[in-house]
């Protein structure tokens, strides 16, 4: 199973974990939404994919 963790990068400071999803489409949709609403572009949101071994 793959999990998609959304991280927030703020002006080069250490990335902060915001949330996680197991549905790829929902994760990318949320990142696009957050990046588009940032008017000043001080935050950047991105996804890291991790494979979970059960």
What features would you describe in this structure?
It is a single chain. With 54 residues, this protein is of the alpha+beta class. 26% of the residues lie in helices and 44% in strands. A 3-stranded antiparallel β-sheet has the order 2-1-3, covered by helices on one side. The protein is flat.
What is this structure's SSE topology?
Elements (H helix, E strand, L loop, with lengths): L1 E9 L5 E6 L2 H14 L5 E9 L3
Antiparallel strand pairs: 1-2, 1-3
Task: Give descriptors for this structure.
54 residues, 3 strands, 44% strand, flat
Discrete helix count: 1
Mean pLDDT score: 86
Strand order of the largest sheet: 2-1-3
Uncertain residue segments: none
Listing every helix as H and every strand as E from the N terminus to the C terminus, the arrangement reads EEHE
Which strand-content bin applies to the residues? 35-45%
Structural class: alpha+beta
Radius of gyration: 12 Å
> What overall form do the CA principal axes indicate?
flat
Helical content stands at 25-40%
Quick structural summary:
This protein has 54 residues and is α+β, with helices and mostly antiparallel strands.
């Amino acid at each position: 199973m793959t999990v998609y963790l959304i991280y927030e990068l703020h002006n080069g400071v250490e990335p902060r974990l915001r949330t996680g999803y197991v549905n790829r489409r929902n994760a990318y949709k949320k990142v696009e939404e957050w990046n588009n609403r940032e008017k000043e572009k001080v935050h950047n949101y991105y996804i890291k994919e991790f494979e979970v071994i059960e």
